[in-house]
Amino acid sequence: MNKKNPTKSTKSDILFLIYQKMDKSTSYIKIDLLKDGYSYKIWARNAYIGIWIKEENCFLISRYKVGKNPSLDREYHWDYCVDPELDWGKGREKGLYGTAKPLKLIEKSPFEVKDFNQESRKKQILKYLDDLEENNPIIKGYNNLQERKNSVIRFSKRLQGKDKE
To answer: What pairs with residue 73 in β-bridges?
Structure first.
């Protein structure tokens, strides 16, 4: 909610409402319809763009965790389950279920799966993913990438005890 005008919603409020809707949504691309090595707009915990890696049932993402530089990470498809014996809710809490819902195919990635683990290619892949995210916002007019970067800066400040909030 906007502190200056409590009746006006902020983009963060809108993003949260969309998150709640997406969490329950079944309107996403199923695993068997995804194309290996293609880039997708995704709804996930840590990114909004990912390259599908069929062999691992996951998306390669650019993740901003702590610090200003991203790292390559993976988000598993929403329907993927590491341990099918676990209760769905408990498994999701422990990170044993997927957290990414693919929404839209964007393009064929210029990278091969073998590139994903090559140190020399990581910066290029991260730039590609960040550029795609800037050009394919999850909400029209909203800079997902910049908001993720800002969130990391705020988190880092809290860790350092410099946050005044």
So the answer is: 61
Over the stretch 29-85, which tens digit does the pLDDT of each residue have?
999 999 999 999 998 888 899 999 999 889 999 998 877 789 899 999 988 866 656
Asked if 100 and 59 count as a contact pair (C-beta separation under 8 A), the reply is yes
What is the pLDDT averaged over residues 88-107?
74
Rounded to 10 deg, the angle between the 119-135 and 144-160 helix axes is 120
HEC letters along 36-85: CCEEEEEECCCCCEEEEEHHHCEEEEEECCCCCCCEEEEEEECCCECCCC
Nearest one of 44, 11, 24, 36 to 113, comparing CA atoms: 36
The C-alpha atoms of residue 62 and residue 71 are separated, in whole angstroms, by 6
Distance, in Å, from the CA atom of 50 to the CA atom of 61, rounded to the nearest integer, reads: 5
Q: Which residue has the tokens 């329907």?
A: 79
Question: Any residues with CB less than 8 A from the CB of 140 and at least 6 apart, and which?
Answer: none
